[in-house]
Amino acid sequence: GQNIDQPTEMTATEGAIVQINCTYQTSGFNGLFWYQQHAGEAPTFLSYNVLDGLEEKGRFSSFLSRSKGYSYLLLKELQMKDSASYLCAVRDPTGGFKTIFGAGTRLFVKA
Amino acid sequence: DTEVTQTPKHLVMGMTNKKSLKCEQHMGHRAMYWYKQKAKKPPELMFVYSYEKLSINESVPSRFSPECPNSSLLNLHLHALQPEDSALYLCASSQEENSPLHFGNGTRLTVT
Fold this sequence. Notes:
Chain A is mostly beta strands.
């Protein structure tokens, strides 16, 4: 089966840097995604990692270590609008079109 | 056009009603999905269509019936729902198996 763990909530200050961790346990691996979801809205795609290392996209970066079953999402220069839930998701290793989501981390950015 | 469009945005229905949720994408994506999301919970996969054929049914009760009339459209037919089925229903599409999901804005369903 699949197990994806991430912290339930985090709080950070505007302008700071925050790192949201995600660990996963799967029998195989086909890629890891990060999505952002504002309250009452649909999730939007942030990043995708399939190989080890860091992927940078503007203020957001995502890191993957397949040997450790570990990923993090790094948000720099935090803005109030970054207050949202951040969902770690793993593509089912058995193939097909199944994306399994973690419970999400609710990030609160304070002034 | 890079959107996934869902209608209606809100739906209130009784337990004896029959209604349908609609989803449309014009990005040429080969896969389309239905997810259900309860408050403060992650999206839960319900159905996957690949090339207009149902490829995954996550043991969803038969009161939910998906339909894919063509490669751009995905419907979810609802009948005899229960109050616990009240949730946000999200449609998504993806280009390929390992491509990111593109979500619609969802239909907020309330069953009374």
